[in-house]
Design a protein that fits this description.
The complex is a heterodimer of chains A (306) and B (494).
Chain A: H1 3-8, H2 19-22, H3 65-88, H4 95-100, E1 103-108, H5 112-115, E2 118-122, E3 131-136, E4 143-149, E5 165-169, E6 189-195, E7 200-207, E8 217-224, E9 232-237, E10 242-245, E11 248-249, E12 261-268, E13 274-286
Antiparallel strand pairs in A: 1-13, 2-5, 3-4, 4-13, 5-12, 6-9, 6-13, 7-8, 7-12, 8-10, 10-11
Chain B: H1 8-12, H2 17-23, H3 25-34, H4 39-55, H5 60-75, H6 78-89, H7 106-115, H8 122-130, H9 137-150, H10 157-171, H11 177-184, H12 197-201, H13 206-221, H14 228-238, H15 243-258, H16 274-286, E1 292-297, E2 300-303, E3 309-312, E4 315-319, H17 321-328, E5 336-346, E6 349-358, E7 407-413, H18 418-429, E8 440-444, H19 458-461, H20 466-476, E9 492-493
Parallel strand pairs in B: 5-8, 8-9
Antiparallel strand pairs in B: 1-4, 2-3, 4-7, 5-6, 6-7
Helix pairs in contact in B: 2-3, 4-5, 5-6, 8-10, 9-10, 10-13, 13-15, 14-15
Classes of the chains: A alpha+beta (306), B alpha+beta (494).
Chain lengths: 306, 494
């Protein structure tokens, strides 16, 4: 078990932007009648037929004065908060509270500022026809994700599957755009309060990784909704999450490394064309003492055995 | 660590096409035919062909043939390309089992042309020709049989399988394991099994392995679980450690794990009858075993005296005892709303339901209800035990509760207009006399809309004393005065 140690090393290379993560989830890896390409460096998704961007690295940067001033204001405010939080205790909470914490609400949706922590994308980025939108629901207290799913694949000759809609949380950043991670090692269960329309969703947890080839590794599990007017409390133990890479389950599985969680995402791709909706009240983590399972899948034997 | 199920595609990229071209001429052409639409690859192929002509001493005749082939390819006219290309390539169409470069006699080409029509997608046409009138499993099987019997060497089986996979949904056999096994049977046996360690080390027959993986992937997508016959076939075709058998092992490992994972299972075959479907979906969303489904109106078609045909839609409603109790406590001066339609997905079908609900109570109207602890002596309604709790025993979330107002009943109907829903409300009134006094507002949308105003689960969570509640209700009933003329007949449309 040398791998968990690796994650504690400082990241050598920053990950790509978050938006591009989502769209790679459902990409097929086999294209039957065309020559498959495998780049040595896994770059962001580029649609087939789209030319490579011919820009020098500094040409993509926006050097504007107002942006710089805003950045200074934002970053120094964050820095100040970081310093003052230290005096209170770890993560700005008193030590007693931090140590005795059994539940923690990570995301709740009580106003439009909470919506800015999320990114919505759909297969329209790869040329599909699905649409997804995000807003606060009518009582302004919950998040409402809605849209239409359309699984017609784009006619680019390479893409074989399409039809997904995704919502993903943004990477939380400390001052000067340093990455900030969620440390959920005290908890063992993901707790959600949702109201769906009967469709199955997938919950994806993205963790910090060390090597660049692992940057698309996410841990997934299913979220089944009942539908109907009542809210639904869902508890998913972290031991159930399995490792996937670009939409494919991996042979070698291991439990989620909870010490550096970057993002959480919700993906819909059940191939049922039509409108969908999902409401989320809050997303939290809790410690369930009744749950003792460490990992739900076999680890003693590789599947399939080589 | 990232061994993907589809990693054989990555392996294919190590296969350099031009080098292969020089050694096995017709295999290259085979690939050329497949890529015929793509201009870029055509150009590349053209260049390679020129090289090939320099290397191998071709007969004048075949060189002329290829020259004719090259012209349209470089001029980039797809239609022309298809025709000429086909004429030449038809016979080159070799399965790798007998892939060795050799000149082809002209009469063979002609003969071949007569048999099949001039199209690139030959096997699509095969399906279209055989199954002109009906597309069923029997015709699909017949096409496969025709292909198997046509050639001992099964030439072009990879293309045939790809074409067949694409046609499967049209024939309605995409969930049929027997058909998948029959398609796998098209592969020639024991030809692609690696025989020594070098072959095993490299990607042996990548196109064929990729095709096999593709077939399994389509099975996976449609949720078809392979059986022992599939495994035997795969071992016979690709050997025990090929990519397809790996894919098979992965499917067999993960499918059973996730088979019964849905906590709200939906039957594979939804009921055909609309009333049964409504009953199923209403009990699903009500989430209360005590909830009672009532059919207010069965679907029927009547012919009136004037000869008009009147179709009555079905109206099916559900109400649980706790919902009835909530409704009984409703303040009659506040309106109740009929809202909808809201969508509910059962696998791939979408049904719509309607709600009878009210706005949340204003804070001044909220009354703390105290249970009389002696109401039921053998079943305490309130527990106030002063347990020695640990410091860290607080397991509640610090989130404010949502108050969205209670839901009183749900219904599904074939036609979501006000008259139909009025029938539901008057049906409800038999058990809920308070509805006679309460103004009912209809907020109906043409399309599905956002859910809002469902109770905070109070009606489904707080039911430890359901039996006692029911008794209470029965005793209360005689006291309620039923008004004869309900006000909902002039429902206000908003």
């Amino acid at each position: 078990m040398s791998l968990p140690k690796i994650t504690r090393l400082p990241p050598a290379r920053l990950l790509g932007s978050i938006q591009h993560h989502c769209q790679q989830l459902l990409l097929p890896s086999i294209t039957p009648l065309t020559v498959p390409r495998r780049a040595i460096i896994q770059s962001e998704y580029r649609r087939p037929g789209k030319p490579k961007e011919d820009k020098l690295p500094w040409q993509k940067i926006n050097f504007s004065l107002s942006k710089g001033l805003d950045g200074i204001k934002k970053n120094f405010a964050l820095l100040k908060k970081e310093f003052s939080d230290r005096w209170v205790g770890p993560e700005g909470k008193p030590l007693r509270e931090h140590m005795l914490e059994q539940t923690r609400v990570i995301w709740e949706f009580r106003g439009p500022e909470n919506l800015e922590q999320w990114v919505v994308s759909s297969d329209s980025e790869i040329g599909g026809q699905s649409e997804a939108y995000l807003k606060l629901s009518k009582n302004n207290n919950t998040l409402f994700l809605y849209g239409t799913l359309n699984s017609t694949p784009p006619r680019d000759g390479e893409t074989r599957y399409s039809g997904y809609c995704t919502m993903r949380s943004k990477q939380s950043l400390a001052s000067f755009d340093r990455k900030k991670y969620y440390d959920w090692t005290n908890f063992n269960t993901l707790h959600l309060r949702v109201r769906g329309d009967g469709r199955p969703w997938m919950i994806n947890i993205g963790t910090e990784t060390y090597y660049s080839h692992m940057k698309d590794d996410i841990y997934s599990y299913f979220l089944y909704t009942r539908g109907g007017p009542y809210w639904q409390d869902v508890k998913i133990p972290f031991s159930k999450f399995f490792l996937t890479h670009r939409g494919r389950i991996q042979d070698e599985q291991h439990p989620v490394w909870l010490d550096k969680i970057n993002t959480i995402g919700f993906t819909l791709g059940d191939k049922a064309d039509g409108p969908f909706q999902l409401e989320i009240d809050f997303i939290g983590v809790s410690k369930d003492y009744a749950h003792t399972e460490e990992f739900a899948y076999e680890q003693f034997k590789r599947n399939p055995e080589v | 660590m990232c061994v993907e199920p589809g990693c054989c595609s990555a392996g294919v990229s190590t296969w350099r096409r031009p080098r292969r071209v020089i050694s096995e001429g017709d295999l290259f052409l085979h690939a050329f035919r497949v890529n015929g639409q793509c201009d870029d690859s055509t150009m590349k192929c053209a260049r390679c062909l020129l090289q090939l002509q320099c290397l191998v001493s071709w007969s004048a005749r075949s060189a002329a043939q290829y020259g004719a082939l090259l012209k349209p390819a470089s001029s980039g006219q797809p239609n022309l390309l298809h025709n000429t290309q086909h004429q030449v390539l038809r016979s080159f169409h070799g399965s790798p089992a007998c892939a060795k470069g050799r000149p082809v006699p002209a009469e063979f080409i002609k003969e071949d042309d007569k048999k099949r029509n001039k199209s690139l997608l030959t096997y699509d046409d095969l399906f279209e020709q055989v199954a002109k009138e009906v597309k069923t499993k029997a015709t699909f099987n017949r096409v496969v049989d025709i292909f198997i019997k046509r050639d001992v060497r099964r030439r072009g089986h990879v293309e045939f399988i790809y074409a067949a996979l694409k046609k499967m949904p049209e024939f309605g056999v995409e969930r049929d394991l027997v058909v998948y096994n029959k398609l796998l049977d098209v592969f020639p046996k024991e030809v692609f099994v690696p025989r020594n360690f070098i072959q095993r080390m490299f990607n042996h027959y990548p196109r064929q392995q990729e095709c096999g993986v593709q077939l399994l992937e389509q099975m996976e997508n449609y949720g078809v679980m392979p059986n022992m016959e599939t495994k035997v076939l795969l071992v016979q075709i690709f050997g025990e450690k090929g990519h397809p058998i790996r894919k098979y092992q992965r499917i067999m490992y993960w499918f059973p794990k996730f088979k019964h994972i849905n906590p709200f299972p939906i039957p594979q075959q939804l009921p055909e009858d609309l009333v049964d479907l409504a009953r199923l979906s209403l009990t699903r969303i009500a989430n209360d075993l005590d909830a009672k489904v009532t059919v207010y109106q069965l679907p029927c078609t009547d012919i009136t005296e004037s000869g008009e045909e009147v179709t009555l839609p079905h109206v099916v409603g559900i109400q649980s005892p706790s919902q009835m109790e909530l409704l009984a406590k409703h303040n009659p001066s506040r309106p109740v709303f009929v809202e909808g339609p809201f969508p509910l997905w059962l696998r791939k079908t979408c049904v719509y339901y309607y709600l009878l609900r009210a706005d949340p109570k204003p804070p001044e109207e909220k009354v703390e209800e105290h249970y009389d602890p002696e109401r039921c002596l053998d079943y305490p309604l309130q527990l106030d035990l002063d347990l020695e709790r640990d410091l860290a025993d607080d397991e509640s979330f610090s989130v404010e509760d949502l108050d969205e107002g209670p839901v009183y009943a749900m219904c599904m109907t074939g036609r979501g207009d006000q008259t139909t829903l009025n029938q539901w409300i008057s049906g409800l009134q038999q058990n809920n006399p308070i509805l006679g006094q309460v103004p009912t507002l209809f907020r109906l949308d043409t399309g599905p809309k956002e859910l809002q105003g469902a109770s905070d689960g109070e009606s489904c969570h707080h039911s430890p004393d359901r039996d006692t509640k029911r008794e209470e209700r029965q005793t209360k009933e005689p006291e309620v005065i039923v008004e004869d003329e309900p006000r909902r007949s002039q429902g206000i449309k908003q």
